[in-house]
Structures are given as C-alpha cells and as structure tokens.
Design goal:
- The complex is a heterodimer of chains A (327) and B (505).
- Helix content of chain A is 44%, strand content 17%.
- With 327 residues, chain A is α/β, with parallel strands linked by helices.
- In chain A, helix 2 (48-62) crosses helix 9.
- In chain B, helix 4 packs antiparallel against helix 6 (104-129), helix 4 (55-80) runs antiparallel to helix 17 (327-338) and helix 9 crosses helix 23.
- The N and C termini of chain B lie far apart (62 Å).
- The chains are: A alpha/beta (327), B mainly alpha (505).
- The interface between A and B is large, with 56 and 52 residues.
C-alpha cells in the first residue's frame, strides 16, 4: 500500500467536513427538542396566566416530536417586566418560551419606560385561547336596569367605576371603554385582582364595573351581577346591546390576549413545531373540557396570525396612549 | 348541612386520601420551618403533582400542607429567632427569649397545643360562618378596611408601653418603607429610583428574615456562646410543661383564636397582622405587660392560636368570592381552578362537600402537626445548645438561601442583609421590631383603602361615618388609643385612695 501522506489527510478531511456539518445540521433540525423546555410565566403562581400555562403546557408535551418536559417557571417581579426581559434575553433556540399579556405588556412598558425589551421583536408562536372581551355590569341590587339608564345617569353626574391600578389591563379597558361609550366617569382605582373590583360593584362601592367576560359570568351565574352591555361585536349575553348596536365596533378590540412567544430570532422550523404543538394542545379533549367548564374559547393561531394580532393590538393601544399614561 | 359536613369527613376517611393529608403535613412542616419557603412555595411546587388526582384528594393534600406550615414555622421561630413564615415573626418575640432561658421545649409544646386548639376553634367558627360568607364579605369595603388597619396599628402601638416614642419611630419607619413601590391609585413609582425589583415594594418575607433571623445571628456572633444560656434548664423542660401552660392560659388561646377567626374571614389584614394583633391584645390585657418580650409563655400562645384560626377562616373570602386573603391563598386558588373548581359564588353552591373535606383536612393536619412537633421537642431543643460557631453559619446560609428561593431573585438577599443590619441596630438600641413589621404590612393597605374610600365618597369624609361597622371601628380605635390615658388616671385615683402605699413608692 502507498504511504498515507499528509496530503491524503487534508483531502480526506476536506471531503468529510462538509458531510459532517450537513449531517449535524440535519440532525440538529430534526432533533428539536432534545432537552426540557422552559416556559416563563412573568406572573405569580395561582394567577390567571399561571393557570392557563399549567393546564395547557403538559398537553403540549404530548404533541412535540420528542418526549421532553415543559417546565413552567414563575418570574413575578416588576409587575411582569422581569419575566418578559428574561424571555427577551434568552437564546432563541426554542428551549425558552413564555406567555405574555397583550396589551398588558404595552401598558406596563409605557409606565416603566422602554428599558430592557422591544415588544415588536419577539418571535410569536400562538395564543392560549381567544382573547377575553369585556362587558359593563352593575350589581344586582343596583337601581340601573339597562344601558340607556346608565348613560342617562352619566349625563347627570359622573358614574363611579371600580378598577385596578393603572398598570392593569382592566384600567385600560375601563378608560378606553368609557371613552368610546361616551360615559362621564370617576374611577375608583387601586383594587387588586380580577375579583376584587367586581365585588366592589356588587357591594355598591361603585355604580358599575367594566370586567372581562369570564370573571363577570361567574358573578352573573351566582346572581350578584347584571350585565348592561357587552363590548363584543355580537353579544353572548341575551338581551343586552353590543358593540354593533351601540355603534362602536372598536369596543371589540379591547381584549386580553394570552400570547405565547419566544426570544427574537427563533428559526422558523422550530417556531412551527412549537406552534403546531400548542394548537394541537388547545384542541386536546382534556383542555377542551376544562375550557368549557370555565367558559373559555380555545382558538388555534399560526405564528403569522399571532404577529398580526399583536401588531393590531399595538396600533389600537397607541391611539389611546394619552388616556393611559399616569396622571 | 349536616350531611355535607359528614360527607366531607367521610370523603376524607379513605386510606389514599389520608395518605395525602399526611404527606401534605410533612411537606408543610418542612416548608414552614425553612425560612423563605412556606405554604405558598409548597403548594406551587405540588401543583403539577396533583394533575392526575381527584379534586377531593388534591384539596386534601393542600389542606394538609396549609395546616402544618404554622407549626413548622414556629419551631424555627422559637429555636433560632428565624420566622419560618411571616406570621411566625410574632412567635419570635417571646419564643426565642424562652429558648434562651433553656425553655425551648416548653415553648414548642405551648405553640403546638395552641396551634391545635386554635385550628379547632377556627374550624368550628368557619363552619358556622360559611353559609353567611356572601353577606359577610360584602359588609366590608374600603372604608372598613382602612379603619381596620388603623385600629390594628393603634392596638399594636399602645402595646409598646414605656417605649411609646420608640414604638412610634419604629412604626414611622415601617410606614415609610411600606410606601416604596408602584402607586396603585394614581400610577407612577415612588422611591424606586428606577430599580425594577422595587416596583412591588419591599418584599415582606425577605425583610422579616433579615429583621429577625439575620439580626439575631449578628447578635449571637457578637456575644458568642450558645442560644440557651443554661443547659440544665434545657434538659428539664419537656413537652408536657408546654401543654400544661396552654391549658393554664385557656383565655389567651380563646382570645387569640377569636381574633384569628374574625380578622381572617375579612380579606384585608392577613396572617402576619393577625398574629401581631393577637400578641398586642394579650400584652394589653395582661397584668404584667413588662414581662412580654422577655419570655412570657402567653406571648407564644396568643399568636400561634391566632395564626391557625386565621388559616382556617382565610378560606372564607377565598372560596366565596375568589378574593385571596394572601399569597398562599392566591396559589391555592390556582390549584382549585386547575381542578375545575372556580372560587366564587358558584363554588359554595356546587362544591360544598369538597370544601368541607378541605376544612377537615386542614384541621386534622394542624392537630397532627402539633403532635409531631411535640414528639420531637427533646431533640429539637438540643439545637439551642449548639455553639454559635456552628449555628450561625448554618442558619445564616439557610436564611439567605431561603430568602433567594422565594422567587429566585438575588435582590431578596440584599433586602435580607439590609434588614438584618437594621434589625440588629434595633435590638441593640431597644426599638420594638414589632412596630416596623406591622407598619410595613399595613401601610400600603391603609393608604390604598383610604384613597379608595375618598374616591367613593367623592372627597368627603362622610363615607367613613355612613356604615355601622365603620363607626364601630372608629369608636374602638379611639378607645384603644385613650386606654393608656385612662389607665394613668385610674392609677392616680388608686394611689390617692391608699395613702399607705404612697410611702413605699
């Protein structure tokens, strides 16, 4: 045999190298995921977003191409901004994803300053469910029986609405909603949590309250709340006016979206894998049952849909920015 | 209703369910003891494990955890001046001095039995009140919450007798610290200096760990020696002496439980305030108030009874309206939702059996945890004989790690250290830490509710005088604040009546 020279080595290596690289690339792409995926929740355990993730993420595991765990972690500091920043800075390799509150995140960033993350750059994967719309309601003991009566009252004196603090989405919904409806209002701010400010209306602290439909429905079913008008395009509550009949179609844009996102620069194939897993999880019978029990709608979205949704929400809220900045 | 009570109990009496109650109890004891962790973390960690379980079993597990946490917390409070959970900080005040006197066993025994009795009384009250939960929660609004907070501050302030001025300074400091953070009423940040961590204000549990645990470790390092001054005393005291003490002071237990139950049912003040409130009321009504803070066993019994009673009744607003009476309840609510039980008016209608099962589990766990605590009293009290050179690094690292572990933020450790230094200075110069804690907890609450009341009343003060409960609270606050004045007058009269006594003075 001829002597094995250095030249042969170089030729061999230069032939093998591209093959190795290509194989590695191919293996890398097909092999996502190979380890556990971290799911960042920028809010405290037990809250609405946390519950969604804990119900849906385990189902997502079933629909991923490989058997890995999706581990939810709560990073609840700075009103949520720390978790969002953590997600933004993570490596865009598909092993860190998170859930964001849209438009909550826009509002929070307005309050806190531009800082650590650019919301337009996230890689959007999908959303957990249809966005929640709002309704305006009164306590069942209230003398107001229809929306027309409420409007008439607001002409005489500002009506008192109970809300959360200015960093919450309920505040934004209330400000924008009351503007669109042409109501003169005086806000009683500072209630904490989604049930607290609705109970305020039941108790009589305030005249009325603008709350998300799942929350309001609970109290309506319990007999303590009466819905006067719905912000949806077509009201799901019988006998009350909706955005169409009130002539304010924009009311339907006010919603809380639970958007699932990844750090900027996520490769498209990984984005699609995650998106497909999420959408299949939303259609899973266990999730469907839970959603039905809690009056929630699970709607599948592609990454493109989601990007459009977020952009829409941003445009909408930018218009109303001046009403939402802290006084 | 009786069928539902029994239904709940019946559901509990299956081997697998009882196993989970027991498991929850063990977890609760451990998490309660480690500073920084607590019921909140325990339930958050257990949530994924409960996915496959029946709702009733998941509730039994949660009940088991929540019932045992106070006992776990009181053990470290007494032995190491380290509040395992925020409410246990009140137990440190007299529990730790008792441990220093070598009576740790007695203190733990008293804490355990007070826990158990408090839980039983709390449960009975909750079962009685639950049908009226709706009306009860609706009776209390922002004016009532603001006044309740003021009342609590007044009670605690007047308890620091002889040190009134220092108490007020400490309280003022607490209030100042409480106002750091995002302002919920008008928006905008206060005193955060752009630090994102401070958006939510100074976090309570890291501050408490610093104020009590780290401060004491600094103190021990400076003084040296061991926690317990006399080894002989440690050998003698046993759990039975603790049990005996609790029954000797049944009035204190009942008072503490009553305070815990009533205040707990209202989603305003929280377990920490309840514990300190019960402590202060006991000090007020005692014949020798100067013995408190130096090892008066009542100072252990009162807060412990209140904490356990409170934990039971905190379920009322959480279940009836979905308004969590604290972080632990918030996580617990998440657990409920995952299992298809939405807290709110429907919960009380459709899931009563599960609720009663939960309450039984909570009580059983509390009583059982007390027994376990009592069993381990001897070996536990030996900790007080450990040399500080071993103890301090151990406790200090556990405290700081626990502080970090609350939500994995390093700033917590910074807060703990700063408050540790503060706490040491307060001990050195004899400023009551009690006041700082209560003011810190209540400050934001009172301010928020006050502003909300003013918004409700459109700027007028009449909103505070329009409802019965508000008026009662105002009268009570004025009464409490004027009590020292009356006592002074009484004493003058007394002295005048007995001229013989005067010569001895």
């Amino acid at each position: 045999m001829e002597k094995f020279t250095r030249r042969d080595l170089v030729i061999g290596a230069s032939l093998a190298a591209p093959a190795l690289v290509l194989t590695r690339r191919a293996l890398g792409a097909a092999a996502f995921p190979t380890k556990n995926i971290q799911f960042v929740i920028p809010y405290a355990p037990g809250g609405g977003f946390d519950v969604y993730v804990r119900v849906i993420a385990p189902m997502m595991e079933k629909y991923l191409p490989a058997k890995v765990n999706i581990v939810p972690i709560n990073v609840a500091s700075g009103g949520g901004s720390r978790g969002v920043a953590q997600l933004y800075r993570a490596k865009p390799d598909g092993y860190t994803i998170g859930i964001l509150n849209v438009p909550g995140m826009f509002i929070l960033q307005q309050q806190q300053g531009a800082g650590a993350y650019d919301l337009s750059k996230f890689s959007w994967i999908g959303a957990m469910g249809e966005g929640e719309r709002y309704v305006i309601s009164v306590g069942s003991k209230s003398p107001l029986k229809t929306f027309a009566e409420l409007k008439a009252l607001s002409a005489k004196r500002p009506i008192k609405l109970s809300v959360t603090g200015p960093e919450g989405t309920a505040y934004a919904a209330t400000m924008i909603g009351s503007q669109l409806l042409g109501l003169r209002t005086q806000l009683i701010t500072g209630y904490k949590g989604s049930a607290d400010y609705v109970v305020a209306a039941v108790r009589g602290d305030s005249d009325a309250v603008i709350a998300a439909i799942p929350t309001a429905t609970r109290f309506v079913k319990g007999g303590s709340l009466r819905v006067l008008a719905s912000f949806e395009t077509h009201s799901s509550f019988p006998g009350v006016p909706d955005a169409t009949s009130l002539g304010q179609p924009q009311l339907d844009n006010i919603s809380v979206e639970r958007v699932v996102a990844a750090p900027p620069g996520l490769p498209a194939d990984i984005q699609n894998t995650l998106s497909a897993a999420l959408n299949k999880a939303l259609a899973d019978p266990i999730v469907a049952k839970w959603a039905m029990e809690n009056d929630l709608i699970m709607r599948a979205r592609t990454p493109a849909d989601t990007t459009q949704l977020v952009a829409q929400q941003r445009v909408f809220f930018d218009k109303w920015k001046k009403y939402l900045t802290a006084s | 209703m009786l069928e539902l009570w029994l239904g709940g109990l019946n559901g509990l009496l299956h081997v697998d369910v009882l196993f989970f109650v027991f498991l929850g109890m063990v977890i609760g004891l451990i998490f309660g003891a480690i500073p920084g962790l607590g019921g909140t973390t325990a339930i958050a960690l257990l949530m994924p494990l409960t996915y496959g379980m029946e709702p009733f079993t998941a509730l039994a597990l949660a009940g088991g955890v929540m019932g045992a946490v106070p006992m776990g917390g009181s053990i470290t409070s007494i032995l190491l001046n380290t509040p395992g959970t925020a409410p246990n900080a009140a137990t440190c005040l007299d529990g730790y001095p008792l441990a220093q006197q070598g009576k740790a066993g007695m203190a733990i025994g008293a804490a355990g039995s007070a826990n158990a009795i408090g839980a039983i009384i709390g449960t009975i009250s909750v079962l009685a009140v639950l049908p009226f939960a709706n009306e009860l929660v609706l009776l209390f609004g922002p004016p009532e919450f603001a006044l309740m907070g003021l009342f609590a501050l007044a009670v605690v302030a007047t308890a620091s007798r002889g040190k009134m001025l220092r108490g007020l300074v400490a309280g003022g400091l607490g209030l100042m610290i409480a106002f750091v953070g995002y302002n919920d009423i008008a928006g905008g940040e206060r005193f955060t200096y752009g630090v994102e961590y401070l958006w939510d204000g100074i976090h309570l549990v890291p501050a408490l760990i610093g104020l009590f645990a780290v401060a004491e470790m600094i103190n021990l390092t400076v003084k040296g020696g061991t926690v317990a001054k006399s080894a002989a005393a440690v050998k003698i005291t046993s759990m039975t002496s603790g049990l005996f003490e609790t029954f000797r002071h049944l009035g204190t237990v009942l008072r503490g439980s009553l305070i815990g139950t009533t205040v707990g049912a209202i989603p305003g003040l929280g377990g920490t305030v309840v514990a300190f409130l019960s402590y202060s009321v006991t000090v007020q009504s005692s014949k020798n108030p100067e013995t408190f803070g130096k090892g008066n066993i009542q100072g252990v019994i009162a807060p412990e009874a209140a904490i356990c009673a409170h934990d039971c009744s905190a379920l009322v607003p959480t279940l009836a309206f979905g308004i969590p009476a604290g972080a632990e309840m918030a996580v617990f609510m998440g657990l409920l939702v995952i299992h298809g039980m939405q807290p709110g008016p429907l919960m009380l209608r459709d899931h009563m059996v599960e609720i009663y099962g939960l309450i039984w589990a909570l009580t059983a766990s509390c009583v059982l945890a007390s027994f376990v605590g009592l069993l381990f009293v001897r070996p536990l009290s030996k900790i007080t004989l450990l040399d500080t050179r071993i103890l301090v690094p151990l406790v200090l690292s556990t405290a700081l790690a626990g502080s970090f572990a609350i939500d994995m933020t390093i700033e917590n450790v910074v807060v703990t250290s700063v408050f540790g230094a503060l706490g040491y200075l307060m001990v050195r110069y004899d400023y009551p830490r009690l006041m700082v804690v209560v003011a810190l907890v209540l400050g934001g609450n009172i301010e928020r509710n006050f502003h909300q009341s003013m918004l409700m009343g459109e700027g007028g003060w009449s909103v505070f005088f329009s409802r019965t409960i508000s008026i009662i609270l105002i009268i009570a606050t004025v009464a409490v604040l004027s009590l020292p004045l009356f006592r002074g007058i009484f004493r003058q009269l007394w002295i005048r009546k007995a001229p013989v006594e005067r010569s001895r003075l």
